[in-house]
Design brief:
Elements lengths: L7 H15 L6 H8 L3 H5 L5 H22 L8 H16 L3 H7 L9 H4 L2 H5 L18 H24 L7 H16 L5 H15 L8
Helix pairs in contact: 1-4, 4-5, 5-9, 5-10, 9-10, 10-11
Length: about 220
Amino acid sequence: MAKKSVTRNSIKKGFQEYLLLEGKAPASVLVFTKYLKITEEAFFEKFGSLGAIEKSIWEDYYQKTFDILQKDKDFEEMEAQEKHLSFLYTLLELIKGDRSYIQYRLQYKSPALPPKFLLVTQRVIDNADTDWMTPPRFIPKQGHDLAKFGYRKMLWKHSIAVIFFWANDDSLGSEDTDAFIEKSTRTLFDLGQIPALDSVIDLGKFFMQRMGFNRSAS
């Protein structure tokens, strides 16, 4: 009998499946490996713990997005705002096959972000491919390095906000998510510029409409 092929990807997919079918994470590596019908030895050749599986899942979402963008010849020629939009749409396209898993994991039980999200923070902040997040004009040159760090962190937090919005979006074809991405990105890049107030007002109107409030008569 041929030996069952065990890959990091097959373990990750098996973990997501277990979580959704059982409604909880496996109690131990032994329980999980019996579910997958593989040996514990095969598991530990790929991962050091059950927690490492989810950390890898979230890291891969971002790293694969960066890899795709790097291969796009047009990406380097884009303006900063276009790059950020491309980043967000590529990320959503990549994760849409895992929507049930993401929806399950983003069920709020506290005001804090899920721990596995926090583990990928540094990966995004340190990634040189996020250099399209440049400081606004009013920041002196002496503060640019610190500001760039802050803007990369803002990039990560914005992507998380988009994922949360998308996971809870029940509009046809995720049309509301597309609108949220466009409006929130414009606001993000207008910060410190003259159009900022208009962008913030527009984003506010979008949320008011989505919450069911009627637009004021002109």
